[in-house]
TrEMBL record:
Recorded superkingdom: Bacteria
Segments forming domain Histidine kinase/HSP90-like ATPase: 38-145
Protein name per UniProt: Histidine kinase/HSP90-like ATPase domain-containing protein
Disordered, as annotated region: 1-26
Keyword check for Transferase: yes
Presence of keyword Kinase: yes
UniProt GO molecular function: protein serine/threonine kinase activity
InterPro entries with a match to the protein in the record: Anti-sigma-factor_SerPK, HATPase_C_sf, HATPase_dom
The organism's taxonomic lineage, starting at the top: Bacteria, Bacillati, Actinomycetota, Actinomycetes, Streptosporangiales
Annotated organism of origin: Streptosporangium nondiastaticum
Length: 154
């Protein structure tokens, strides 16, 4: 895995849906889930299914945990609305969570007594490359993993 970095750059809405699409902006496959509230379980399930079909080289436990943490953060800290986009682009797996808060994720000192603070630290350790694109109406948190050399097309 490559060194994780957090890039924060400056500069959607829809009802809840799941869709898959083929060739779209270089993507081999894509799944999108949008929700006005909760439903992190649906995001985890859709991500695991996508990985099994299109990115068998990716570590499903790590990717699903990153998705779960990012969706949970959107639910807790950004008012609840979020959109997940998971796509395979050439030799990369790209996961994006869009939410309505322009505040970037803030690492906190973990509270091992159940008070949180562990999620962003886990995301930083498990994701390949991390980026945050900020806009006045929200942000996109993007995690990218690169297929190891010699594995072949998924």
């Amino acid at each position: 895995m490559t060194r994780r970095s957090l890039g924060i750059r400056g500069s959607t809405d829809a009802k809840r849906q799941v869709r898959s699409a083929g060739q779209q902006r270089g993507s081999r496959r894509m799944v999108v889930i949008e929700a006005p509230y909760g439903d992190a379980a649906r995001a985890r399930h859709a991500t695991a299914e996508f990985l099994a079909r299109h990115c068998p080289w990716a570590d499903p436990d790590a990717v699903v945990l990153v998705v779960s943490e990012l969706v949970t953060n959107a639910i807790r800290h950004a008012g609840g609305w979020w959109r997940l986009c998971v796509r395979a682009v050439q030799d990369r797996l790209v996961v994006e969570i869009v939410d309505t808060s322009p505040r970037p994720p803030q690492p906190r000192t973990p509270d091992f007594g159940g008070g949180g603070g562990l999620g962003w630290h886990m995301v930083e350790r498990l994701a390949g490359l991390l980026e945050v694109d900020r806009r006045p109406d929200g942000k996109t948190v993007r995690a990218t993993w690169v297929e190891p050399a010699g594995v072949g097309a998924a």
